[in-house]
Hints:
By secondary structure, the chain is of the alpha/beta class. The protein is 36% helix and 22% strand. It has three domains: 5-278, Rossmann fold (3-Layer(aba) Sandwich), CATH 3.40.50; 280-473, ANL, N-terminal domain (Rossmann fold, 3-Layer(aba) Sandwich), CATH 3.40.50; 476-608, GMP Synthetase, Chain A, domain 3 (2-Layer Sandwich), CATH 3.30.300. Strands 2-1-12-11-13-14-15-16-17 form a nine-stranded mixed β-sheet, sandwiched between helices. Strands 4-3-5-6-8-7 form a six-stranded mixed β-sheet, sandwiched between helices. A four-stranded antiparallel β-sheet has the order 18-19-21-22. The mean pLDDT is 94.
Amino acid sequence: xxxxxxxxxxxxxxxxxxxxxxxxxxxxxxxxxxxxxxxxxxxxxxxxxxxxxxxxxxxxxxxxxxxxxxxxxxxxxxxxxxxxxxxxxxxxxxxxxxxxxxxxxxxxxxxxxxxxxxxxxxxxxxxxxxxxxxxxxxxxxxxxxxxxxxxxxxxxxxxxxxxxxxxxxxxxxxxxxxxxxxxxxxxxxxxxxxxxxxxxxxxxxxxxxxxxxxxxxxxxxxxxxxxxxxxxxxxxxxxxxxxxxxxxxxxxxxxxxxxxxxxxxxxxxxxxxxxxxxxxxxxxxxxxxxxxxxxxxxxxxxxxxxxxxxxxxxxxxxxxxxxxxxxxxxxxxxxxxxxxxxxxxxxxxxxxxxxxxxxxxxxxxxxxxxxxxxxxxxxxxxxxxxxxxxxxxxxxxxxxxxxxxxxxxxxxxxxxxxxxxxxxxxxxxxxxxxxxxxxxxxxxxxxxxxxxxxxxxxxxxxxxxxxxxxxxxxxxxxxxxxxxxxxxxxxxxxxxxxxxxxxxxxxxxxxxxxxxxxxxxxxxxxxxxxxxxxxxxxxxxxxxxxxxxxxxxxxxxxxxxxxxxxxxxxxxxxxxxxxxxxxxxxxxxxxxxxxxxxxxxxxxxxxxxxxxx
Length: 613
């Protein structure tokens, strides 16, 4: 077990943690990324990385930036991104990571709201788009834009645009002794922007003390050391990847490999063979759906064996984690057949994930129980975590033992939780934010009169102290008859049918629940062929026979819900919910308001045409 006693030092900051790791593991691999020019993975050691951090730190001073100034970054996960982050922190600056897939208008708003003095981004095209979308006053504080991949040296409406090498050269020759002192624990370590109720993002102010406390809390739940390798693909503009992956890896000297993209995850898993990874549920759900689709095309014998392996594997998981074991006529055979089933099925699933995982941290949204149970049954160490940007982010963390896939673990050390009105989870601990930037009213509203942070999530703490999240309070559907339905649980249940790739349910102030579904393309074509319908024809989506079939499958999947929670109508849409079309957040959670707006006419037609509406 890794010795974490050093993390108890109250004077620790992120730059101090980096310097400790560089001193201990100078020649070990720190970061790895794919070089498309040479078609190979390249890496840097901790000492090489630190040299670049110092080079950037000198350039920040040469650019006239001083402690407390905000420095914005718009880059995908990369070696450049983590160099920027650590150099800015060491210089006492406040990093402002922008969402790499956000709209130019939103990026411009964050630049203005944060009063950032510098922006580091990939290309002139990126900057041009932001500049075109920005209101004139939004960039009043911005003095310079540094481009990683383009050459430039000119002024753009009062903003100097320069290539990174020319910008870095300005710091050459600056001695270390004239650099500003490193920050103190109470100093800000970043503005992480999160959406507010007004629709405008709010800058969450986190301190070095907040982040170090959360690193200490996480390190108490998972054993990380210099032999570990993270695969990183979630954006650093979110605290989940930033803290649980980057800062925890940096603290313990673990290497981090940057995935080429979410679309390349399966290939990167096979090539990198990571031991640790942060993921959002949607990625696991997508891999699960692919596995199930492949299985549906296999022989009856293979399907039988796979089902038995999942059943027996789940019983093994329950025994290991103190959960009730579901009775079965075959459970007495588990000791004999499990090794065979695991070799035939489980080992192949684990191999698809690289074969070396000791923990996969799932967070950012609720994980479908069917998906979680399947991967746990296959021997994949999926451990759910829970938190918010405002809590650095971790509040609860599933340990290696007592894992329950329907829960998000026990509260981490030095963290108190309680239930408030409407069973809202409220929290108190050293990882809770300083407040919202320039939003005193919002900051005050985020806390109870006695100082507990309001999460906005409805929770249950009755399961042996484990935290079970029921859903966002503001997302609970209340029908016109007064019935309450948590939409996420219902959507997950419907998604257990492999035909339904994505599901959105609605019914706020309506007489019943309806579902909008995105279908799996291959299965959709197969069903249409059986019914002699054209899968591409718009009229197929409203065909009565198809509507009856879909409703039957939805009702079967949701059979364990009360009758008022089972959808009475289903509509198919062919456009998936994606980050690019604005229907998913950058961490792939559904944007419910936007989905409802996008398909508003369809929803109105459903209710207008239904006899019970």
